[in-house]
Amino acid sequence: MKFHVLTLFPEMMRCCLSYGIMGRAAEKGLISLHAVDIRDYTQDRHGKVDDYPYGGGAGMLMQAQPVYDAYLAASGGRAVRTVYLTPQGERFTQQKARELSGEEELVLLCGHYEGIDERVLEDIVTDYISIGDYVLTGGELGAAVMMDAIARLVPGVLGNENSAQEESFFNDLLEYPQYSRPEVWRGKAVPEVLLSGDHNRIAAWRLEQARERTALRRPDLYGVYQAKQLAIKQLSADKRNSIHMMESLKRGRGEIIYTSLWSGGEDIVLYDREAGVCMLAAENPEKGKNMAGIVPEAARLVLTAQPFLEDILTERGYRLFLRCRQVLYTQKSPLPVRHREIRRLSLEDFEEVRLCCAAGGEGPGGAHDGCGGQCEEPGGTFDRLGGPGVDEAYLRKRLQAGALYGAFFQGRLAGIAGIHEEGALGLLHVAQECRRCGIGASLEAYVINRMLEKGWTPYGHVEEGNEASMKLQEKLGLYVASKTFLWMEKKLANEADV
Ligand code: ADE
Predict the structure, then answer these.
(1) Superfamily designation of domain 342-490
(2) Strands 127-130 vs 81-91: parallel, antiparallel or unpaired
(3) Which of 66, 300, 415, 458 could form a disulfide with 430 if both were Cys (CB 3.0 to 4.6 A apart)?
(4) Atom of ligand 1 at shortest distance to CA of 132?
(5) H helices then E strands: how many in the chain?
(6) Ligand 1 pocket, residue 142 CB under 6 Å
């Protein structure tokens, strides 16, 4: 992750990447800082970057030209996400940090004085962010806060992968209390349960503590948590057809925009802001029509198991791109993985991933004779790999997020599988020449096992008619939901109806 910070005080920013975890991550090349001094780009011979606001008013404004030229120097003409730190922005949250940690580079623009000429903001800023409801003298401290919160979510920055998940704000609860040596300090003993070695008891105690602490310190968060728990409980009555929503809520991704579940109904509009995915369930077409009206403008994709919503969503500018069956793995025990050479992929593997997925059998060469052609497992694409949102940019994002795994054969990438942005298992693709050798099954089993380690229920979507994939799901022990699911994609504004 590369941070370009546009600032009048570059030195102030440099110290952020000099110490502790951030310092080590920078040394390892996992994160880097490009501090751009806006003053270097002024055309004023006295080095001035500010001037009086038109129409009068207190204070000075930063002028458009030096900010714009500093931005061009930082972005190099690439379409880089550009954040303006301002008290007028959207509140910075853990969710926003997670979203931004998926970018390869970010521009952070720090304002000073009374602000920045609106015209340059209109041209370059993609996100307006505030770190809290108070006014600072400039954006630098905000940029430092953002860099820290984002960098620690970049894969590899925190040694222990689990630690970024268990902490405060994961799953809408604050973190439970923690204790270290000595066992007794100033007469206070560590809670007995933590010394018991009983992992189930410890997990239950921690959850209870997290609940109590959240209720006491952050009743606002606790209200959201309780509402989601109630919705999960209602949805669990039809788990196979609702697992996508239950998991979205459990993993702290989905926000409930509307629901009648709390009063015994079946309607819900759930929005995963980060993935731009809206999940929709409606009791009947009439309600569906109203609910489609509150699907957020920014939702790129809508997932629903109600066929009558197809026409309603089509009217609202969406188009069907996948009719599929939902499959889920309900056991807790990990699956056996036959193929040995599977590992998490990183951005460095992008070129190989691209080649492996390219059409026309451009994948790794050489026949796979490991099974002597005896095994029967299919290994082809089983979900929306080739569909919308699964382009090179999406593959890069999933690599960056550490959500893609690769199986290697004779040192070359033979297939991939991973976890989609909203949390479904998928992206399974085996290179043409490596199919029917069990690599697909091993890859899927491997990803399922990673999801189980996180305490998730793995689920995915199999395109209707893909019998080979359906057989694979059954073989791995996944259940198939009774309803047909529709993935709808937002049409581009200038796209003709098809
Ligand atoms: N600049 C000034 N105040 C700010 C705040 N609260 N958040 C982000 N940037 C700022």
Answers:
(1) Gcn5-related N-acetyltransferase (GNAT) (3.40.630.30)
(2) parallel
(3) 415
(4) 6
(5) 16, 20
(6) yes
Alpha carbon of 136 to ligand 1 centroid (Å): 5
Residue nearest to atom 2 of ligand 1 (CA): 136
Residues facing residue 81 across a β-bridge: 106
Nearest CA to ligand 1 atom 6: 87
Separation of alpha carbons 17 and 7, rounded Å: 16
> Span 2-151: which CATH code?
3.40.1280.10
Q: pLDDT tens per residue, the chain (498 residues)?
A: 999 999 999 999 999 999 999 999 999 999 999 999 999 999 999 999 999 999 999 899 999 999 999 999 999 999 999 999 999 999 999 989 988 998 999 999 999 888 999 999 999 999 999 999 999 999 999 999 999 999 999 988 997 654 555 455 667 899 999 999 999 999 999 999 999 999 999 999 999 999 999 999 999 999 999 999 999 999 999 999 999 999 999 998 999 999 999 898 999 999 999 899 999 999 999 999 999 999 999 999 999 999 999 999 999 999 998 999 999 999 999 999 999 999 999 889 999 998 888 743 333 333 333 333 333 444 444 455 555 556 888 898 899 888 999 999 999 999 999 999 999 999 998 988 888 889 999 999 999 999 999 999 999 999 999 898 899 999 999 999 999 999 999 998 776 554
The CA-atom distances, in angstroms, between 198 and each of 104, 210, 228, 393, 398 are: 41, 18, 28, 44, 35
The pTM is what?
0.84
- Which residue among 8, 85, 110, 134 is best mutated to probe the pocket of ligand 1, counting the most ligand atoms within 8 A of its Cβ? 85
- Whether 26 lines ligand 1, by a CB cut-off of 6 Å, is no
Q: How far is the CA of 143 from the centre of ligand 1 (A)?
A: 9
The two three-digit tokens of residue 404, written as one number: 């893609």
Strand 50-51 with 188-189, pairing: unpaired
